Amino acid sequence: MITLLHTILSILPVEAWSGFASEFGSLLLGVLAQTPTPTPQPGLGGGTSLPAAVMVRALTLGAVAFLIGLAVGKPVINWLRDHRIGKHIRIEGPERHQIKTGTPTMGGLIFIIPLVIVTAVFMDIPKYNSLLLPLGIIIACGILGGFDDLLSTVVRNRGGMAGRFKMVWLVVIAGIAAWILVYQLKVNYVFIPFVTGKDTPFPQGILLGDFLLPIAVLAIVGAAHGVNLTDGLDTLAGGTSAIAFVSYGIIAYLQGQEPVVSLCFATVGALLAFLWFNAHPAMVFMGDTGALTLGALLAVCALMTGQWLLLPLIGIVFVAVTLSSLLQVLYFKLTGGKRLFRMAPLHHHFEMIGWSETQITMRFWLVSILAAMLGVALALT
Fold first, then answer.
1. Cα–Cα distance, 83 to 91 (Å, whole number)
2. Contact assessment for residue 252 and residue 49, using Cβ atoms and an 8 Å cutoff
3. What mean pLDDT do residues 297-316 have?
């Protein structure tokens, strides 16, 4: 195969390859510059279905985000190494994890940077100003998580930012986002499987009004915390997050929400670039910088589609991991020191019973894919 490629490259003149590159570049720019108009057909939840060009553009944006992520990946990792921003592994954690000590963390920058670039440059924010909300979430949570990562590495504060302090700031960010959703974007409704939709008395969902405010705060904070807890094995949080964003990208497409479609698939592309470097054995970890950002952004996408009731199903791994930690603490206190799991969060329990890291990750991915399929199916009811 390599010989064949070499032969083809040697036969074709340089002018042919330059012409191909020029045509491909023109095609790519043309796709990114498109602003398709939705067709007036009924879509999910009473919205309008979108032309195929919208999905083409969203997938192309994902590919662009992936390429940018690959380009910035190595420089980011080298910068983290140079500044000794390396992971501290808990002594009480699985023994096999001690070899990971010093691995660069704060690697969420690898997908945050391309995501910000693609959103700001290619997504026509003047036309879709609702994108300012997820863009703000990406930046705000990235800064919060980055500050925590720096405290736990460069400053050598082994615990990082105090849990309560971090939670307060996360609630503040979530509260601002919830206020914007309800009062600025007027996203104050919910779709319920088998109850709402185009063939029901509630085609636009059930209006919740101010009641959505606490729900939105809880969803954003809970999702951010769940992804953060899941970020304990190579590719686990990144892979399950990518699957969840694909699901909400499909749901948004069926609803006719073009900006959310582009945002979700751009996030997937950026995450795939991160997973390139996070593949076992990982060259870099996402840290709180990436985990808090991913969880909060996923919740915002779910809220913007009105399909946030499906978030616990589509993000079933995050829910299971969070519940395992809560149950472990409660059981420990109620029984005077006994443990429900060998170790929490849940993925560490499976490590302790003999599963390999890649087995756990792959099986959690499979569960995520199945849950995502069911979530999209329920969104279609």
1. 23
2. no
3. 98
